[in-house]
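[agent] plan:
  1. take the single chain provided in the ticket
  2. run structure prediction with default settings
  3. attach structure tokens to the ticket
  4. add a short note for the reviewer (M.T.)
[agent] executing step 1
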Amino acid sequence: MSHSLRFAPPGQFLAEITQRCLLGHFFLTPSKKLNELVVGVIAKAQEKYPVEIVSLAVPSNHYHLLATANSQEIVSKFMNFVASNVAREAGRLYGWRGRFWAGRYHLIPVSEEEEAQVDRLKYILAQGSKDGLVSSPRNWPGINSAKAQMTGQSIRGIWYNRTGLYHARRKKGGHKARKIDFMEKLSLKLVPLPCWAHLPPEDYQARIRDLVEEIEQETAAMHALAGTSPLGRHAILKQDPLHCPKHLKTTPAPRIHAYTKAARQTFLEAYRTFVKAYRAAAARLASGDLTVEFPEGSFPPPRPFIKAIQGLKPG
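[agent] step 2 finished; step 3 output follows
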């Protein structure tokens, strides 16, 4: 199945990024060790690529990032580093050697409108609560940036330089190389929501607290109406990471998160223009025109196979 074309507005943009585990497996079930490893991977990715994270949440079988970047290329490199290293670390932790992710990450731009940005932030903070697992984002035993955004505290993780450890162990006397000597303690860096970036830190944190309180009230009302109660931290931590649910909730993803019809239409028109230019360039490439130029911000397809000329010998 082909992927939709990746497109974002030129310049710095805000986007929600999601990636799901294969078949909904609970590979990201919270634990102290897994939490540290996932945070460490994302923090190391921040050192390598200029992607700024506003908020993040890691439920048991997928994760959400609300982040800003200035190009799809940077996001692609950042996400490739995160996805590959999280898969290796979690796979090593649970003894899983097969495919880890259901597919490529999914990116949805968020408009510059305050309402759209706040809505996406609240949605990510509500992970776990809106699904009936915990009563508050504060109670999620895994990774949720709510507490850090409310207080300004950092989220800490661990990164292992496994390449360095591998080469050290291949040298003479390498059996003495210790894993702990190739461990780094890293802190995840969070930035304010773009529409609230002008606020002093204490005011920004107060707004995050207001959002969390709204989520708590909505969660309590949801359970009161249904006559249910949250699953709870203890039950979440006891989940089998290799468990595969029988049914997965899926909803169509929009092209953009926008508040007004005008903002959505402006984006869609730019997207259609982009797709038209890309398809035209792809058709020319397929016909053999190797000089064709693709629109800026796109990922061109591989070049076609070049046939050998009959009667000529290589060299």
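[agent] step 4 note for reviewer: The beta strands are 13-20, 52-58, 62-69, 106-110, 143-144, 155-160, 183-188.
[agent] ticket updated
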